[in-house]
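Task: sequence design from structure.
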């Protein structure tokens, strides 16, 4: 039943020449400069002969964290979810949420008693976050049969990053404080996480590597596991390269 209407400011950028076809790009925004900048980019792409796109992977993800009373129980869930023989059953349960949602894979990482789980699925022509959320809930309800001691402590649909940070320091002392933000053009940047690194142990390890004349390849100085105080999905490392 129609109850009214909403006026939305929409601008058009383009045409964008992509894969040999021209597309107009509608942008629902009040920021005229954003549309103008996008339009200049489309013009530059068009004058240079157009752009070519390649689809490497198509999927929507949903991440969550569950906690157990022991690391042993956490590992049992990881083994269960990553067992190929169980994937068919989990797919059937997940796919009940929609005619279009199809489970593609499940990734797990353990940090102590916590299990970090990431579901990936195809969602047809829709963005599909509601499909994924319902599918994940179906799987969680099913898992409660064998893992009734599992507590869900966090669910997130935020994007994930796999980036490298390189920096140099004149006086490598004290503690390095890092903060990660999700840059946003239309509102305040969202704080995504933080980390504190004590520099002295890393510097000592790097100097020892130099004394031992181990210059080839990389040396892992520290491993960082995912926990509730950072934004890691899997274990990461701090490496020393050619010091």
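Answer:
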């Amino acid at each position: 039943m129609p109850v009214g209407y909403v006026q939305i400011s929409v601008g058009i950028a383009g045409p964008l020449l992509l894969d040999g076809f021209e597309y107009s790009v509608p942008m629902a925004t009040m920021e005229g400069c954003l549309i103008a900048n996008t339009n200049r980019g489309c013009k530059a792409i068009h004058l240079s002969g157009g752009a070519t796109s390649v689809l490497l992977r198509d999927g929507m993800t949903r991440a969550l964290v569950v906690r157990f009373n022991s690391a042993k129980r956490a590992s049992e869930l990881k083994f269960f979810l990553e067992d190929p023989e169980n994937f068919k059953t989990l797919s059937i349960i997940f796919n009940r949420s929609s005619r279009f949602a199809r489970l593609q894979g499940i990734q797990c990482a353990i940090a102590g008693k916590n299990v970090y789980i990431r579901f990936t699925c195809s969602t047809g022509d829709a963005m599909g976050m509601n499909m994924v959320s319902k599918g994940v809930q179906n799987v969680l309800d099913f898992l409660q049969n064998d893992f009734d001691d599992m507590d869900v402590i966090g669910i997130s649909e935020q994007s994930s990053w796999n980036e490298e940070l390189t920096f140099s320091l004149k006086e490598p002392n004290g503690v390095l404080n890092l903060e990660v933000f999700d840059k946003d053009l239309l509102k305040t940047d969202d704080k995504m996480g933080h980390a504190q690194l004590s520099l002295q142990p890393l510097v000592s390890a790097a100097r020892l590597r130099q004394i031992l004349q181990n210059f080839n390849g990389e040396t892992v100085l520290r491993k960082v596991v995912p926990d509730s105080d950072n934004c890691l999905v899997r274990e990461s490392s701090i490496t020393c390269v050619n010091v």
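Residues 79 and 85 are 11 Å apart (CA to CA).
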